[in-house]
Design brief:
Keywords: Coiled coil, DNA-binding. This protein is mostly helical. It folds into 2 domains: 151 residues, Serine Threonine Protein Phosphatase 5, Tetratricopeptide repeat (Alpha Horseshoe), CATH 1.25.40; 175 residues. The protein is 69% helix and 1% strand. Strands 1-2 form a two-stranded antiparallel ribbon. Strand 1 and strand 2 form a beta hairpin. The chain starts with a helix and ends with a helix.
Length: 356
């Protein structure tokens, strides 16, 4: 053994512990260990930095993550999971450290893309890598990596379901199509949000043109009203689909985020009363369906064959408070409903901590 260690220029300890890869179960065990560590770290909302008493915990999680990456350099699934955690919990590092940690993940993700033979791991890494470069505002690289993902010719789910039907494999067809529909609800929501952002930018450009007397004021105002109506239509489309399919179980489709975004859209158009109504709906959703409760998707009539696996233990209430702390909400900050929503979230966060 010493001769072998000398030949490869490694320590005996490393040789004894050497393992080319980890099983998916082993990766998930490490992932959950690190995820629970990140989840415990609390943020000071006034500074958006980790609270002083949790800084040592943050350092411990970072060291543990690096230790696993060094110990299993060829476990690309593990590296991918750790990078996804870093991105998901990026706000836990605080504003001062955020960019450094994101850059750190880009190096790991680029290593995955170069070396893994697993297409699913590679393409997931490309998505996370693109998101990382968006966070760093390097949009050329974000686009480059996204365009490296193989474009599927088409979704085979429906074709496969038809084959199952011909073979009378009815339950398999039902499970496949329900899962496809469940995913499509989120895809529709993301598409609507993307279109909403396009229209917001178009509206801003038209608003600038109004200040220039060389343009036809009436024509621009008509176009602005048209864009405004389309934008609000897309916001309601996403929300109504979720409301119908969830059968008033709003927490399943993260509808609390939809109402928060809707309130911001109304503020964008100076529709303060409508923004307040959206916050009332948000408060109602939070009261009826506490986010921290374990939700079983199969409770919904349309998705009784869908299995939900929640791998995260993070405190979503902290995320909501960070969003509501943004300057975008300044116009509503002194309104009673805004204060009620904050109080409700703080109460539920306390309930979650007492439950742990």
């Amino acid at each position: 053994m010493p001769l072998l260690a000398d030949f490869f220029n490694v320590s005996i300890d490393k040789l004894l512990n050497y393992k080319i890869d980890l099983s998916e179960e082993e990766v998930m065990k490490i992932y959950k260990e690190l995820e629970s560590g990140f989840a415990r770290i609390e943020i000071d909302l006034s500074t958006e930095e980790p609270k002083e008493e949790f800084r040592q915990d943050l350092e411990s999680v970072k060291k543990l993550s690096n230790m696993y990456i060094e110990k299993y350099p060829k476990s690309y699934l593990l590296k991918l999971r750790i990078c996804s955690l870093y991105q998901m919990y990026s706000y836990k590092f605080g504003k001062s450290e955020l960019n450094d940690r994101v850059k750190e993940t880009t190096n790991i993700l680029e290593d995955i893309v170069r070396n893994t033979d697993d297409i699913q791991i590679k393409e997931t890494a490309l998505i996370i890598l693109s998101n990382a470069y968006c966070m760093l505002e390097d949009y050329e690289k974000a686009e480059l990596y996204l365009n490296m993902i193989h474009k599927s010719i088409g979704d085979t789910s429906v074709n496969l379901a038809m084959i199952y039907l011909k073979q009378n494999r009815l339950e398999e067809a039902e499970i496949l199509l329900q899962n496809k529909l469940f995913s499509n609800v989120f895809n529709i929501s993301m598409d609507c949000k993307g279109i909403i952002n396009v229209y917001k930018n178009q509206y801003k450009e038209l608003k600038k043109k109004l200040e220039n007397r060389n343009f036809n004021k009436n024509a621009i105002e008509r176009e602005m009203e048209y864009i405004k109506n389309k934008l609000l239509g897309y916001a309601n489309l996403s929300l109504e689909i979720k409301k119908m399919l969830s059968e008033d179980k709003g927490a399943f489709f993260s509808m609390y985020m939809d109402y928060m975004e809707l309130s911001l859209i109304f503020l964008f158009f100076n529709m303060k009363e409508e923004a307040k109504k959206a916050l009332y709906s948000l408060k109602e959703i939070l009261e009826k369906y506490p986010i921290h409760e374990n939700l079983d998707v199969s409770q919904m009539r349309f998705f009784d064959k869908v299995e939900s696996k929640n791998l995260y233990t993070f405190n979503i209430y902290t995320n909501l408070l960070i969003v509501l702390n943004d300057d975008s909400y300044n116009e509503l900050r002194e309104e009673p409903i805004f204060k009620d929503v904050i109080e409700k979230i703080l109460d539920m966060e306390k309930m979650l901590k007492n439950k742990e």
